[in-house]
Model the fold of this input.
Amino acid sequence: MVIFIALLASALRLATPLIFSALGGVFTERSGITNIALEGMMIMGAFFAILVTEFTNMPWIGVLAAMAAGIMTSMILAVIAIHLKGNQVVVGTAINLFAVSITAFLLELVWKRSGQTDSVKKALTTNPFHFLENIPVIGKLFGGMTPFVYLAFVAVAVSYYVLYKTPLGLRIRAVGEHPKAADTVGINVYRIRYICVGISGMMAGLSGASLSLGTISLFREGMTSGKGFIALAAMIFGKWHPVGAMLASLFFGFCEALQIQASTLGFDFIPSEFLQMLPYLATIIVLSGFIGRATAPKAVGTAYEKGHR
Done:
């Protein structure tokens, strides 16, 4: 039982950054934009969360800086993909490469070394609700929880409410499913897409902060390790729905936790290299059986884009 609780707690922590980024991807996909740049936005968020916390010694200000960095990075995608009609995949890939390069440069500039930053004195790696640890049996589950874990599930509920219970959510879905029809009834398609790309950047920046401030209290080059792309897979596997994206993220988080807890679970006979590739292997297997049967919620978007070139 103790081992299972430890595995579940690890899965929740590891799924947290995936949940944030997958939710951001849901908003862009629902509005008709494919955001390949989630990885780059996560990197920017992770770096600026540590940078601002280092200088202010206030981790929550670092979180806000991470969200702002994600939004500013997302605006590059918004301008080029929405207004200039650039290829969304190419632009997203370029942003990912740019984010890796600019954070490595700034790391050298500020900390005078490469690889990783110094650890910040204050971070968000402890459970803010200590009383939950006193619950019998499952109390140990909350021992390693960070504020980001709770925020992730709140974000799922808020995202669901916005997308399916508000006029804004209705407009977002209309723009993604039939932008020309939405335009004819007075909905500003560009504005809605800018908002959604900005939300995506904010969530990806928060995801990056959960990695740096909520996990190891420092920024390390390559610390995202493809999690932005796994979040995209979670979004697709979850059928572009906030709850579905959360469940898919939990699945991928569980796969990664299984790899980390392998020795505790008695899987020592399995080569460590195989266990390390387990989360990525799960991503490939899931998508290979799912993506062919899935249709993104923007099938009519192409006609609108061609008509506005």
